[in-house]
Design a protein that fits this description.
mainly alpha, 73 residues
Length: 73
Amino acid sequence: MTVLYILVPVAMIFVILAICIFNWAVNNGQYDDLDSPAHSILFDEEDPAHLSAKQSSDDASNSSRNTHTQPED
């Protein structure tokens, strides 16, 4: 029974840590573009259509990351 006095706070610390890591990942754009990496394995790297699509997705992800930054004072 006394082990619960240790396990409950340790479990709460793990939950708080997991929430903090998840919030960090969302705020840093880790979940912005989930489709492009999965589709990129289907195309040839030297295909011009693939390169232009990759460039446009990179531009879109960079512009979305810029909206997440804080304005400077």
